[in-house]
Write a structure and sequence with these properties.
This protein is of the alpha/beta class. Helix content is about 35%, strand content about 20%. It has 14 helices and 23 strands. The strands form five sheets. It has a six-stranded mixed β-sheet, sandwiched between helices. Strands 10-9-11-12-13 form a five-stranded mixed β-sheet, sandwiched between helices. The protein has a five-stranded mixed β-sheet with strand order 15-14-16-17-18, sandwiched between helices. Helix 8 packs parallel to helix 9 and helix 13 packs across helix 14.
C-alpha cells in the first residue's frame, strides 16, 4: 500500500509521512509537524460528504488534512477506514490514515470493502468514527470520502461537516498526539454477513436464479461472502456473476446502473441466462438496482414501496421514511398497510437522521438507497435484494407480477437531469407556470407541486451542477409524458 507521501500539491505539509503495514498493528512513525500549516481553500466538501476531481480538488495531502480534521472534530481515539477499488483509493486512504495517526488514533484498516461494511464496522467495533474512501459512481478522475460518527451516525452538514472543513482548510491542528497505530481488521466481514442475513428468513426462499452485476466495483468479494453463507444454510439460489472482479480501471464502464445507457448490459445478460431477477450495484454498492425476469429495469420508487410492505407486514403501524421526489406509490402502500409515512429531505445524511428521529423501521429513496433501522439506521445495497427474493418466495410471484399493478397505478417519468445556465430562473419559470393551479406546494427539498392527477418535484442536486425533475401521475402515463415535455421547454428556455 502507498504511504501517501505525495506532497507537491495544494495543501501539502512539509513533513515525513507515517509508514505502516496493514498486516500488523505495529506502527513506525516519523514525523515533524511544522509550526504553522498554511491555509487552503477546499472545494471537495459537498453537502454531506467529500467528492472532488483528482489533483487540485483532492489529493493525498488534502486527504491527510481531512483525516486529521475529522479526528480532531470528533475527538476520536479509534477510527475505521475502508476503500473502494479505484486506482487512487489506496493512496488516498493511506494519506487519510496519516492524518488520523497524527491525532493519536487507533485506525482499523478494513482494506477493500463497501461503504456499508464501514458503517457496520464503526458500530460493531465501538469506533468513534468511520471513513470510506470512494467516489461511488463518479467519473474515473474523481474520488471522495463518506464519513460517519460513533454509532454510524451521519455527520450533521451544518455543524460537523462545517467544522471538519474549517479545520482542514485552516490547518490549525493541535500538536501531534502519541499512540497512533494501525490495527488490521479481524473478522468484521463475517460479522457483517451475519447481520445482513438476519434480515431474511432463508427457509422462505424458493429456487431462484439471480444474475448479479458488480460492475467491476467493490461488491464482488462481499457478495461472495454472503452467497457462501447462504449456500451453507441451504438457500436454493443459483447465481450467475458478471463483471464480478474489482477493477479500478472499470473496463466495462463506470458502475452506475441508474443511467439508462448502462442498463441494457444487465438486462441482456439476464435474458440470456434465463434468470428470475438481476441485481446491479454502483461502485461502493450502497445502492442496489433490480431488474425483473423480462429484463425490465425496476425504478427505485417501486422498490421502496415493496420494502415498505415487507416491513409493515412484520411490524404493523411502523413508520416508513421516504424522500420527496416520487411519493404517491409509497404513500398509498403505507396507508393501505396502516403505517405512517414520513417525508425527509433527499440525501443519506437526512434520511439516516430521519430514521433516528422517528424510529422508522425502514426508509428509501428512489435513487436506490435503502435504510434500515436495525442496520445502524444506515443504507445497504445487499439487504434489499435479499428481502425481495424472500418476498418472491413467500408470494410465489415473479418480480414483474409483484410490481405490475403499482406501476400501472402510479406511473412516473424517472429522474431527468437538466444542465441550465441559471437554475433559479429556470425553477422560477416552472413555478410561475403551475403554482396557481397547485393544490399543494411543498418546498422541503426543491419545489414540489401537487395537482389532483399529477405531481412534480424539481430540485438541485446536492452533488452535481444539475436540476433534477420527477413527474408522476395517477394511472396516466400519457399525462406524465405531456407534463415532462412542457416542463422541459420551460427549463431550457
Amino acid at each position: 500500500m502507498s504511504s501517501g507521501c505525495t506532497m507537491a500539491r495544494i495543501g501539502a505539509d512539509p513533513r515525513p509521512c507515517a509508514i505502516y503495514s496493514q498486516g500488523a498493528a505495529r506502527l513506525i512513525l516519523s514525523r515533524t509537524i511544522p509550526a504553522k500549516v498554511r491555509p487552503v481553500t477546499l472545494t471537495c466538501f459537498k453537502a454531506y460528504d467529500i467528492r472532488g476531481k483528482l489533483g487540485d480538488e483532492l489529493n493525498p495531502a488534502i486527504a491527510t488534512r481531512i483525516g486529521r480534521a475529522f479526528a480532531e472534530t470528533l475527538g476520536a481515539r479509534r477510527v475505521v477506514i475502508g476503500r473502494d477499488c479505484r486506482a487512487s483509493s489506496a493512496e488516498l486512504a493511506s494519506a487519510a490514515i496519516d492524518g488520523l495517526l497524527g491525532a493519536g488514533c487507533e485506525v482499523v484498516d478494513l482494506g477493500l470493502c463497501g461503504t456499508e461494511e464501514m458503517y457496520f464496522a464503526t458500530t460493531h467495533l465501538g469506533a468513534d468514527g468511520g471513513i470510506e474512501v470512494t467516489a461511488s459512481h463518479n467519473p474515473m478522475d474523481y474520488n471522495g470520502m463518506k464519513m460517519v460518527k460513533a454509532g454510524s451516525a451521519p455527520l450533521d452538514p451544518a455543524t460537523d461537516m462545517a467544522t471538519v472543513r474549517a479545520l482542514a482548510e485552516s490547518g490549525a491542528f493541535a500538536p501531534d498526539r502519541p499512540g497512533g497505530r494501525v490495527t488490521p481488521d479481524a473478522g468484521t466481514r463475517a460479522a457483517y454477513v451475519a447481520r445482513v442475513l438476519s434480515f431474511v428468513d432463508v427457509a422462505a426462499l424458493r429456487p431462484l436464479h439471480v444474475l448479479v452485476n458488480a460492475g467491476n466495483g467493490t461488491a464482488g468479494p462481499t457478495f461472495d461472502a454472503i452467497a457462501g453463507e447462504l449456500m451453507r444454510r441451504g438457500a436454493p439460489l443459483r447465481v450467475t456473476r458478471m463483471h464480478h472482479d474489482p477493477d479500478g480501471s472499470f473496463p466495462n464502464g463506470i458502475p452506475n446502473p441508474l443511467l439508462a445507457e448502462n442498463q441494457p448490459m444487465t438486462a441482456d445478460a439476464l435474458r440470456s441466462a434465463g434468470a428470475d431477477m438481476a441485481v446491479a450495484w454502483d461502485g461502493d454498492f450502497d445502492r442496489c438496482f433490480l431488474f425483473d425476469e423480462t429484463g425490465s429495469f425496476v425504478p427505485g420508487e417501486y422498490v421502496v414501496g415493496l420494502l415498505a410492505e415487507v416491513f409493515l407486514a412484520k411490524e404493523p403501524g411502523a413508520t416508513i421514511v421516504h424522500d420527496p421526489r416520487v411519493v404517491w406509490n409509497t404513500r398509498d402502500l403505507v396507508a393501505r398497510a396502516r403505517g405512517v409515512a414520513h417525508q425527509s429531505k433527499t440525501g443519506h445524511a437526512f434520511l439516516k437522521q430521519a430514521l433516528r428521529d422517528t424510529g422508522a423501521v425502514y426508509g428509501g429513496e428512489m435513487s436506490a438507497h435503502h435504510y434500515f433501522r436495525d442496520f445502524m439506521a444506515c443504507d445497504s445495497g445487499m439487504i434489499p435484494w435479499l428481502l425481495v427474493a424472500e418476498l418472491m418466495g413467500r408470494t410465489n410471484l415473479s418480480l414483474a407480477d409483484l410490481l405490475a399493478a403499482r406501476r400501472a397505478a402510479f406511473p412516473s417519468s424517472g429522474e431527468i437531469n437538466f444542465r441550465v445556465a441559471d437554475a433559479a430562473a429556470s425553477v422560477a419559470r416552472v413555478r410561475g407556470a403551475f403554482h396557481a393551479q397547485a393544490v399543494l406546494v411543498d418546498e422541503m427539498d426543491g419545489l414540489s407541486l401537487e395537482f389532483p392527477d399529477w405531481r412534480l418535484n424539481l430540485r438541485s442536486s446536492n452533488t452535481e451542477p444539475l436540476l433534477r425533475l420527477n413527474v408522476e401521475s395517477r394511472g396516466n402515463p400519457g399525462l406524465v409524458a405531456e407534463k415532462v415535455a412542457t416542463i422541459s421547454t420551460l427549463l431550457t428556455a
